[in-house]
Amino acid sequence: MQGYERRRRMKHIRNFCIIAHIDHGKSTLADRLLDFTGAVSDREKQDQLLDSMDLERERGITIKSHAIQMEYTHEGQEYVLNLIDTPGHVDFSYEVSRSIAACEGALLIVDAAQSIQAQTISNLYLALENDLEIIPVLNKVDLPSANPEEVTDDIVDLLGCKPEEVIPASAKTGLGIQDILTAIIERVPAPKGSPDEPLQALIFDSVYNPFRGVETYFRVLNGSIKKGQKIQFIATGKNYNADEIGTLKLNQEPKKEIFVGDVGYLITGIKEAKEVKVGDTITAPENPTQNAIEGFEEVKPMVFAGIYPVDTEDYEELRASMEKLQLNDASLVFQPESSAALGFGFRCGFLGMLHLEIIQERLEREFNMTVITTVPNVSYEAYSKKNPDDVILVNNPSDLPDPSGMDRVEEPYIRASIITKADFVGNIMSLCIEKRGQITNQTYLTPERVELTFDMPLAEIVFDFYDRLKTVSKGYASFDYSPIGMRASKLVKVDILLNSNQVDALSALIHADNAYTIGKKMCEKLRKLIPRQQFDIPIQAAIGAKIISRETIKALRKDVTAKCYGGDISRKRKLLEKQKKGKKKMRQVGNVEIPQQAFMAVLKLND
């Protein structure tokens, strides 16, 4: 009887996520769904309800996936709807892949004014690979600039669905929300799985709670999980007690048991962030499942940068903060490293520049850490002449072996897809060619909109590519990329010398053709940023022993001849010579302080 009851309950569960490009209205639509199903009271209502971080509210973007449960009655039947809200930004597509793995359906939201963008397409393919039922929603139809007929045709071309399957809606006014809920219940399949099999649950997220340890969010695929039972994490092989389980309403609601097909949270009192791996399988040690859940690849960082505490004594505190952040953000990778200029710190891997900015800001806000970030770079592979099969991984410019013994260096390439208005094609092409890109395809989606495909080095995108793309296209172009492997490249290491001392934190690996211009720009930029001292400071850019550019910060001068009135010129000369000797001596022992802006300025060389 119990099994029958559980199967009947499972028929009334719908797990779905929302996928869309940035700013197409995901979080607002989630707010409306919560209002409509009565999941939030009037007192708890606020905009961007699921974006719990201050940072998400300020920037108006979703960084973390969020899960929430709603109840809705349709034709006299009670249904449980589990919504997993996902980020739309290209740097957080890892979050999207995890959320998709826990769902059976997806709402594909397209802005009626902006039509389909690059990121919409890449998230859609992720959903289709996981066999999700797609419900297309045309959002923002109330905008004066909306173009519903044309955009509906674009969606029909993309999905191959019928025009009447596209739901017109406005998350702002609440138009079409009822139709969306009906479509979720009628079109999204109920979860599959068996209540009688051994427990098998997928971890799709985890957060750190300073009072209760790690909270794990999971979706039960087979069996059920009871409060107080013993559970096991397959990846780490460790056993725990399920101290508290429950469902994710706006606030957590503890339950006695979570059944197959449902989504919930689990608290086991784990203190260590490393013990919970996202994408891991939860099972019961006395009756374990035979197969772990597949489809979770380890995340590959794209951009590397050093993060150092301003005060070296805060090193251990920084490590603890990073571990807590890593728990909440599985795509952050870090390992200890040291630098002659900055002391002890960490070499961190990020998914992109936005990810790097967010992590730096979260360290400052949530953990009160003041940190210095070095120049970001990507990961290269070097091959030596002696052993051509040995690969030397270069995550930091200082790891690059001596050029004389090196056969070649390979750098990661990406396939970039840019969707833009036809008027800006020329500007975008010249930007991509300047960034060493090669155009591989150009397709007109409509007479007005073009999709351009380029193969280009990832290193060129790290710095200011996205900002400049938005500038040359007046904000219209959308951009998405995927890695396509390593290719041999002519790279050199450009070092920066201050007062004849090399500053390892400012070194960069640069393509040989751009080395001279970038070295020159770096020297000019640093000359403006480094404060003047009592002595001359030479700033030099060098490749190996060859100096390619030089700027000098002139010394501050005290007028030593002020009290020397008239008389013989040799008296003045004597005083000036004395000052010169003093400055020379100072220069030999003097240290140059480098402000934090200098490290970040290297990124904005074109300003």
Give the topology:
Elements: H1 2-11, E1 13-20, H2 26-36, H3 54-59, E2 66-74, E3 77-85, H4 93-101, E4 105-111, H5 118-129, E5 133-139, H6 148-159, E6 167-168, H7 177-187, E7 200-209, E8 213-222, E9 225-226, E10 230-233, E11 238-241, E12 244-248, E13 252-255, E14 257-258, E15 263-267, E16 281-283, E17 303-309, H8 315-328, E18 333-339, E19 343-350, H9 353-367, E20 371-373, E21 380-384, E22 391-394, E23 406-421, H10 425-434, E24 438-444, E25 449-457, H11 458-462, H12 465-472, E26 478-489, E27 491-498, E28 501-502, E29 508-511, H13 515-529, E30 537-543, E31 546-553, H14 569-589, H15 596-601
Parallel strand pairs: 1-3, 1-4, 4-5, 5-6
Antiparallel strand pairs: 2-3, 7-8, 7-16, 8-15, 9-14, 10-11, 10-16, 12-13, 12-15, 17-19, 17-20, 18-19, 21-22, 21-23, 23-25, 23-26, 24-25, 27-28, 27-29, 27-30, 30-31
